[in-house]
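pinned: reference chain
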Amino acid sequence: MRVLVYPHSMEIGGSQLNAVELGGAVRDLGHEVLVMSEPGPLVDVVHSLGLEHLPIPMRRRRPSPEVVGSLIAQVRRRGVDVVHGHEWPPALEAYLGPGLRLGVPAVATVMSAVVAPFLPRNVPLVVGTEQLRRDVIAGGYRNVTLIEPPVDVAANSPEVSAGDFRTVHRLDPEAVLAVVCCRLVRELKLEGLLTACDAFGELARDGQAVQLVIVGDGAARAEVQERATRANALAGRVVVVLIGELADPRPAYAAADVVLGMGGSALRGMAFGKPLVVQGERGFWKACRPDTVAEFLAGGWYGQSDGAGPGGVARLKRELVPLLADSAHRASIGVFSRALVVERFGLPSAARVMAEVYRKAIESPRPPRVADLARLARLLPIYKIQRKLTRGNGNQAADDFNAIGSS
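pinned: its C-alpha cells
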C-alpha cells in the first residue's frame, strides 16, 4: 500500500507525534508512507524515521482549498492508495479532495475527546478510547476502530539515560522531581499547569523536597511563568522551572521521579517506568495505579471532575504525597506503568491494526452519502461562525474540539 499521512500540526504534541511514529511503524511493515504537513519541529522526526515529507503552508484556512488541491495532486502523482488525516481538518480535507474527486479512501483519526459533528460518518474512523468509540457508534458512525495512543516502547524506556539533565537545568539533585511535557496552551493544558505550580509551591513551603519541571512552549507561557514565579516566591526557593521546548524530551522523562500528564505524554512517561498522575480539567487529578487504571483504559488518559469535593490543588497534593514520601512505592508503581504500556500500547501492534484499517478502506470504498454532505454543509458554517465569535472574545481554542464546550 502507498499511504499519505497528514497530521493536523507539527508542534511537539501527542496526536501529531502519534501520527508520525505510527506512519513509521506502518512503513516498517512493508508499506510506503508519505507525510504531508506544515513546517514545525516534528518534521525532523519525519526525516529521522526515513519518511518522505511533503510541505504545505503554515498559514491557511481550515479546511483549506489550497491543501485540498495539493492532496489531489500528490495522490495522482504518487499513486496514493489511502489518505489518513489526523484530527478533523486533515480528515475533512482528505475527504473533500481525494475522497470526493478521485474516489481514494480517506481515513480519520481523532485523538481528541470529541469528534466534530460534521465529520462525514462514512469515513473510516479511528479513536483513542473505548468510551469515545461507543459514543461515536451511538452517534451514527459505523466503521470505528479503537487504537489507543501507541508508544515506541524501545525509544521510550527505562534504558534511556537522563544524561546531565538535572545539572544542565540547575535542578536540585536531592529533590523528588516531577516532570510535565506539554504545549503551553490554554485549551486542555493551562488549568492543570497553573494548578501544578500552585501545588508544588505549597508542598515546598511546607517542607517537602520537591521540584517541578515544565517542558514545552506555547501561547500561554507568560501565564505559566507568572504562576511559577509566584510558587517560587511562596516556597522561598526555585521549585518550579520552565525549560522551554525540547526537540527530544526523553531525558526529561528519564530524569523524572514522577510524571504529570495526559494523553500520549502520559503514556510515554509510563513507558519510562515512572509513576503517573493523570491531569484533566475542572480540578481532575488522579494517580494511575492498579486500582484506578480501568478508568483510564475505558475513558482515556484524561478526566474531568464533577466539581464536588476539594479543588484541583488539594486533589493533586493528595495524589502526590504517597508518591513523594516513598521511593519504594514509586518504584513499584513505575514497574506497573512500564508493564502496562509494553503490553497494551506498543507501536508494532498498533501499526498492524492501522494497516488493516487501510486495507479494508481500500477494498471496500464507501461512496459519499448525501446525508453526510448535507450535514457538513449545515454544521461546518455554524461551527466557523461560533469560532469567529469566540476569537473575538479572546477565547479561541487553537486545537478544535479539544477544549471544553467546543462540541
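why pinned: Residues 28 and 389 are 45 Å apart (CA to CA). The domain at 165-344 is CATH 3.40.50.2000 (Rossmann fold).
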